[in-house]
Input
Amino acid sequence: MSLGNSLYKNLKGDKVIWMIVALLSIISVLVVYSATEAIAFKYRLGNTESYLFKHLGTLLLGGFLLYLCYAMHYHRFKVAAPYLLVVAALLLIYTLVLGPTINEARRWIQVPIIGLTFQTSDFAKIALVLFVAREITRHKDYIKDFNKAFKPIIVPIIIICGLIAPSDLSTAIMLFVTTATMMFVGRVDLKYIGLLLVLGVVLFAFLILLGDLFPDLVRRQTWISRMREFLHGGGNEYHLEQFKMAISNGKVFGVGPGNSVIANTIPHPYSDSVYGTIMEEYGLFGGFVVLALYVLMFFRVGSIMTKSDKSFGALVVMGLGLSLVMQAFVNMAVAVDMVPVTGQPLPLVSMGGTSIMFTCISIGMILSVSKYVEQTNKNSKQANTDNEGTD
Output
């Protein structure tokens, strides 16, 4: 108990976010362990422990990366932002041209020797958020000048989102919305935000046309068919029926850990469809708890943002926080048929190396800002107390 109290006191930054990370990690271990039973019998002779230990290893690595980013001063991210963006663009281009095709998509790069797959869009999301925050901060006044808004902010957004969209439209759209929101909060003139939205629509229409004319060039057309199926019906009934069955079976408190039926029938019950597994095993109560944790994270991010006296830190927290929470809401919305089926994992819960690691990096950056906001406020209060004592 004393060790826990000592750890709690020594942890700096928003302690509620630390608590959310811990709870989501515990939920992740429980759900992934039970949801990998079918795949374990298919590929590992029923050895579910092998997936459990692999997932635990990924969470531990993610925790190390989270702590590493938390320990850094967040201004280092500002210095690194332009270089990270260039690397992200090069990696996305390489992925589109030479990346291996996995599940009919080119989203990954295979790391030589160790054979680990690396999803480049996850890296690009963080790089673009940091870069946009940096560029908005460089112009502290209201941005009304075209040259200050278009080339340094709008062009990188269009390029990065355009490189992600052919293979992962949902990620591109969420990143586009995130950066547009950052521009609005960063006091960029509304006409330039409108220009960004128009360019985004043009880019999307161009990709659809390019996919129809040159299907070999834009290989990933699944997102077009999914949108048509969502709007007109057909194609995803089995997937949605399984989700409805999970909610029906789970009722209020669920069927219990390891007793899920859809974990053996639905595709990817441990990653993209993990919320369905949670709803069945832990019921509406479990689903509400998970939803509430992400909502609470959103409010804590908003609190950190309003307390930060540095615009870069505030924009980074808002951009990374909004990206994570939006991704979580999209994953859960798929389960209740509110949006088309996407390939978005549930942050920090779904099994998957790249997703967990970059989610932890994002949270580590948020906690880094929170730590220095907390220290600044503490120093300010101490200075006020000293002044009052002097008077």
About this structure: Strands lie at 108-110, 117-119. The first helix runs from residue 2 to 10. The chain has two domains: 11-71+235-367, 76-220.
